[in-house]
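go over whats below:
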Amino acid sequence: MGFRKKSKMILHLLLAVFLLSLLPGKTSGAGKKDPFPEYAGPVELLQPLNSVPTIYDGAAGKEDGHDVLYTTSKGVPAMFHVIDLDDYKLLRSFPLEGAADSWQHEVAPDGTVYIAAGKTLWGYSPETKKVTPLAAIPESSLWALAVDEESNAYIGTYPNGKVFQYQAKTGKLRDYGKMIGEIGQEYVRSMDYHQGYIYAGTAHKKIIKLNVETGEKTDIAEPLNEQGFVYDLDIADGRYLFARYSESKNMYIYDLQEEKWLDVKLENVSGLHVADSLDNKVYFVADGKLKYIDLLTFQIGETAIPYTSVLRGADWVEIENDPRLPGKSLVTISFDGKVNFFNVETESLVQYPSIVPPTANVINKIFAYSADKIYISGMTGATGALYNPKTNTASSFALGQADSIHSWNGRVYFGVYPDGSIQTLDPDAEPAGPVTKIFTLGNEQDRIHAMTDGGGKLFIGSIATYGRLGGALTVYDGQSYKVFRNVVENQSVIGLAYKDGKVYGSTTIYGGLGSTPAANEAKIFVWDPVREAKTQETGLQIDGLGKPEHIGELTVGPKDGYIWGASKGFVFALDPRTLKVVKSVEVVKNPAMGAWNSIHLEWSKSGLLYANIGNELYVIDPVTLKYKFIVNTVSFTLGKDGDIYFSKGDNRTVLAKIRVIEKGKWKKMHVKNPGFEAGLSGWTSMFQTGEGYSFAVTDEKSRKGRYSLKIDDRWQNRSVAVYSDPIPVRPRGIYKGSVQLFIESGTPSLLIRIYDREGRQLAEEAVQVKNGEQRWQKIEKIIAAPENAAYARLFALSTSYALTSAYFDDFAFYALKEKPDKGEAGSVRKKGI
């Protein structure tokens, strides 16, 4: 096959793939009286959480005679890095496609570096300098790693709490099954290997001793009388197993030779690892400093080295090029990529700056505080961001995973996981932080999913910690707080709204991960802040909904005063007095929902309700209950400028924007021969045509004038496309293309593309029309011109697989007269024609 034919086939395929990816406007009741504004195409803004890397673990090894550190930074995808510790430089980096992060690395005896990332076990060779996916692990998350003397790898997982063995010589995978197998969600969170046995730390207090030959399992942790996660587990000197429980922060020592627990308890230990002993001393972090236990006397001592973080990996290395580090030093890496050396000879901490390239974290929550301040939190990261829509810039500040953001009394509040704390900043005095921790909820609460305010108080809804049921409503008056747990027995609070002195709440039957629901139906409740008591509790009665497992979030209708909420794919309004459903609409059937999904709701200034349901954003008219799909996203906010700011559905590290045009004034621009009255003058065919896949100017039908363009496409592996001469555009402008379309059959499309001066495509938007046969209809699509935009083209199109017989007439192109914001920059860039 010749090059030109191959190219044509590729163009057909790319065009088909793009248009098949389009969502065809999921809209209820749209038409001439469409109540909704116009929406421009998505515009990429920036990656706001891109100032520092996010790192969970590292492991030291030897490569080409040098001490090196292996680590992985969180991102889309995660990036594996090799750092030369002797010369302190970044040697190489590799993308781990399909993975977002890694919680553990292990260096095997044969030198292979094993990486547990995503759902894959990866291997890095210090000889070939390559990373290879070794085995797909059939679990959602990989949490723990260990290696044996044969360089086989062992992987601990969630949600089934399994251990797998990867055989280095054969590449085979062995499944040892669940380590406990008592409930639906279980973890193997920590793990190490010793002489034919895996020791697996679970989330349910047990430490399972697994015989890797027979598969026999024994719990050795029963004498400890502990609860919760065995978060850390390491074997030192081939004899002593160190295990730390995250709830109590107690670390215990098990003598593998004597098969018994020592009468020693290390308290308030931070974790996350220990290394082999140096001069019979094993070092750990506790009480904000580096401490040790002497394995000869089992006496606990401490160094003069302060350290308030944790050991993300712990290995002994000798750095010959730094006189500050005589002898051996304990090396670890910090959350933000700094490399830390603990030198016990000098009792000093030497910190090297991060040389790991920043990788953008995934956006968690987005909150618009003012016209120039949008706050953004990340997932399992240590950084938040302040975004300025006016300048399209972002600044970062230290912040954990905030699952809710709210403003009250001139301050911004963050509900931070995993410590279940409320943190705050002054957006006027210190808009980019630092944040201040006000209090921690305690009471086994760690995820804060809802906040509202009223009557001079802040109300907080939360979810219990791992393995626990019973969320809480917390009330804060600016000075003190009270936690009211189990407002609805054994349920978590995920929605809150305040109206006329009352707090309206909604729940989910689910608690922390690893817990088993005790109820079968979520509830709506009313709380009296004066009496500090629940006054009403009821289920949600909507035809077709059944008994919902979660209800949330709640918001007060600005015009009707109803309590609006959502559950599964339904959006509803409640009478605040009776809690009866006044109206409801099913927007999405069977949306993708998690255990704690609090469907985010926001009201526009014009009184429309925006609902993020199952990763899809809709706008809803609260009067008629008509609705319209806008974009795929997990998180969004309405800016004070009225536009939509959201995380991209296909890459949540990217903040994007959709311009909302409430009352657009459009200026018509020149399109050469828009109605084909001059034949094909001003129009060009993109592809070769033939019998059964062709176009022609015809007088068979017309909307205006005498002629129109007919596309006849009866081949499923062909595309027919005709495009206009260039139409000048300006960067950052908002434009709208339209066409009059008469469909005899099939699914024709209107396509708009924008190019730079060199003819490189910068952006595209399309509408594939699937209804309205045997009548003329006007089809419109808005597109945002990115930076460097020079011109646009309009396309009459039938894609592969689209089988079309349709007439196109009266093309038009408009520019929005209103000037776009200065901050509107960038664009969703797509490859292909």
Remarks:
- Helices lie at 3-20.
